[in-house]
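ok here's AB hydrolase-1 domain-containing protein:
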Amino acid sequence: MNRFVGCRRLIVRDETKDLSFPVMLMYPTHVPAGTVAMGPYSLEVAPDAPVDGGPLPLVVLSHGGTGTPLAYRTLASHLAQHGYAVAMPEHPGDNRNDQSLTGTIENLVNRPRHLRLAVDALLSDAELGPHLQRDDLAVIGHSIGGYTALALAGGQPWAGPGQKIEVTKDPRVKALVLMAPATGWFGLNEALQDVSVPILLLVAEHDRITPRWQGQLVLDLVPDRAQVTFEIVENAGHFSFLSPFPPQMRSPGFLPASDPTGFDREAFHRTLPEDVRDFLDKVLRGSPSSPPRPAGAVP
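and the structure:
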């Protein structure tokens, strides 16, 4: 496919909270990409290039707690090169530069709303909107981003008995990709009974942060378990779903760059984007999926 990856940065306004937050959009373009430095990362992108084709399926990606959207650049770039528009908001108050809301109920309320606001802003953008599908949205979420995805798709989270977390379902969501999802808020009162979209559920074998029981909640509580494609990524840890970090950031003290002994993150990130794309192609485009590979297998 002779497509490059374009990128554009938007600022989205949340009038309810009187704040703004950035959203990076990656998408296909015919403009040749170059190496662009974004903080410690290098991306092969064409900034502000025109969008190629459309209407494109829209994917919104919710990063993990205290994280950054750029930690999923490998996956986002792959999807963009293959005809998807990938929106990556930075969750205010719960990102690498600002943890003022991390661990709060307010953050649990805000996160799904900010995904919805990001989608609304993109669809209403005079230049970008005409290139995007309006009613077929997929959400990818890692860790608490998995919580965010489930809440947007109709999950009703609870902070405890009688403590409902106020979230709103977005009917445009047609598919979810959950990577090591944090799901403990959905254990009460049939909390996932209204989540009825196809789900690709990936859990890490050696995850100490969101262990396997959290993924099992999804299997047990969605109304149709047959809608869930479930894989255990052998020997992976919680952070193995993050794109490989630059060499200068890989140190034993930096947990996001650490994996269980023997796990090859670079090899995994040659297959993960393809597996996610196969799933999204089948759900959003009606394309037959490729034959499944064992989780964590390398080509």
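+1. The chain has one domain: 4-285.
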